[in-house]
């Protein structure tokens, strides 16, 4: 039985690792073959094929629900109902719309919309909206968050920005009720921690600012501020324990069997908590796992612990195979499996405090390979932080928050309990901040598959019972993971990474022993490209310090993320064409015409001293390796281009970063003729409001014989300067959910 569950689980989970989905004919053949094999001795391959076929069919249905290509970028009027809790921050209202209809159009079942400067939007309301529709598409960067996979896992078939709208119907149903509960929480003075209370009660983390999220990430305590399996299991355990305690002391009615009643009450309570949290996919998974655990306790304890865990794994993935695209799925099942491994088969019963500490450090160690595979920070302070935070949140913050929310109608009592809950969270965050400063998180460099597999084996050996002779081998097996081989350019060559930062610019120039960052992307509200994209990409590529950060000029789309980069790694020097407009904390120097050499690679900067506009003051960087040259031009316009041509600087180059994202006011015919590039590089946001790149600019480059390489279409771009190779776009990497 266990082998069959493993085979089915592997088939269902294989979806996560597929580069592409099989066509309908191959899918049908796999399903038929799997069904036939079930009636032979080859049941295990049959279950694997059936699981894989079902997962692929399910994923294809979700892909087919995406917005039609013909509607991509179109603005249309539609009607739909707001589901979940709208998020507000930075002047933007973000919400999800379901059951949208428009005359003559087939629209996805669910869409994620943004309304800049929009009015108050409430859960459950029905709106008529003018929306610029977009197919699900995210930034594609090395070792950064995959937004497209996240959207598909949430069954979101389109995104869009709202241009106008009007409410058609007041909110009703569970979504409106949850919104009213959130309004009540927000109205209470709770030490500024109303967002944390809403996260614990409703699963709405939009009220927690980015600094606090980063603190939770660095201390490995994110799971405490989202309604996860831990919270639902805790409530189920409390209700189960209450009935068991009453039965033990003879208070429970004898005519009612206590065990079925305890399991039923625990399940109803966990289901109610899940409904309060919106019953999203992760919450559904938690409720399902809790139900299986209760059923095991009621009827199937004789089967052991591993088999129910496999049943839960298979049921969750059979219900929604796309759950395998979410990091939380693997972390939650990995954590439960580790707890089973840690405590199953141990001789004797150690003191509770020893078991608690063992669980924390073991989980922190053994989950590290999973975090590494998902390009998430590894919290070195996680075991200590969770040792304190888990009981604090579980036994203090969550009960106070739930009771306060439930008793909001009782004058004084509900508000008082929420005030206490906010105070408990304030103390917790202060403590976590102190721990994070004492023991910082570690963003590991991406490791090859062989090193990652050795790291998993090493972790497993380290958590086996003491006294086993092979235990010490685990440390040696971890070394390739802790100190992975970092791919560096050869002497005299350079790697040029044009990161995909939307409507902005950030370029990594890396030689054998040096690294320079040219611009750092934008910061808009709480969304900081430096923090979300640039820094994780640098760390994942093995860059631990920057010899120079060159900010072409001070516009937000070029310099907005610089502060986050400086907070995340040492930066030896900051240079800019507009140092006076940058924050003093950056300590930027003025750009000067100069040349230098790193590891056999020549670099030059040029700056137009007579420039009158910020764009024309951009500091231009030229990099040359083994005769192959690239120009990084910031936002210079036609006048600065003319001054650059007249300066006598060496202009012929293989690659030219199109000035000002390919705007009509730049990339003059004179510049293109002087540079004569074989490739034009454009960094911009898809469907940007500025119309970049301008069609006449694209025509100009093509007429000169230059190939166009666009981050909006290809994702992050890599040029191996000095090898005279072609540009590599990360979007070409095969992922079944990613558009080419």
Automatic annotation (TrEMBL):
<feature type="transmembrane region" description="Helical">
    <location>
        <begin position="329"/>
        <end position="349"/>
    </location>
</feature>
<feature type="transmembrane region" description="Helical">
    <location>
        <begin position="232"/>
        <end position="251"/>
    </location>
</feature>
<dbReference type="InterPro" id="IPR052159">
    <property type="entry name" value="Competence_DNA_uptake"/>
</dbReference>
<dbReference type="InterPro" id="IPR035681">
    <property type="entry name" value="ComA-like_MBL"/>
</dbReference>
<dbReference type="InterPro" id="IPR036866">
    <property type="entry name" value="RibonucZ/Hydroxyglut_hydro"/>
</dbReference>
<feature type="domain" description="Metallo-beta-lactamase">
    <location>
        <begin position="503"/>
        <end position="687"/>
    </location>
</feature>
<feature type="transmembrane region" description="Helical">
    <location>
        <begin position="417"/>
        <end position="436"/>
    </location>
</feature>
<protein>
    <submittedName>
        <fullName>DNA internalization-related competence protein ComEC/Rec2</fullName>
    </submittedName>
</protein>
<dbReference type="Pfam" id="PF03772">
    <property type="entry name" value="Competence"/>
</dbReference>
<dbReference type="InterPro" id="IPR025405">
    <property type="entry name" value="DUF4131"/>
</dbReference>
<keyword id="KW-0472">Membrane</keyword>
<dbReference type="InterPro" id="IPR004797">
    <property type="entry name" value="Competence_ComEC/Rec2"/>
</dbReference>
<dbReference type="Pfam" id="PF13567">
    <property type="entry name" value="DUF4131"/>
</dbReference>
<keyword id="KW-0812">Transmembrane</keyword>
<keyword id="KW-1133">Transmembrane helix</keyword>
<dbReference type="InterPro" id="IPR004477">
    <property type="entry name" value="ComEC_N"/>
</dbReference>
<dbReference type="Pfam" id="PF00753">
    <property type="entry name" value="Lactamase_B"/>
</dbReference>
<keyword id="KW-1003">Cell membrane</keyword>
<feature type="transmembrane region" description="Helical">
    <location>
        <begin position="257"/>
        <end position="283"/>
    </location>
</feature>
<dbReference type="InterPro" id="IPR001279">
    <property type="entry name" value="Metallo-B-lactamas"/>
</dbReference>
<feature type="transmembrane region" description="Helical">
    <location>
        <begin position="44"/>
        <end position="63"/>
    </location>
</feature>
<feature type="transmembrane region" description="Helical">
    <location>
        <begin position="442"/>
        <end position="464"/>
    </location>
</feature>
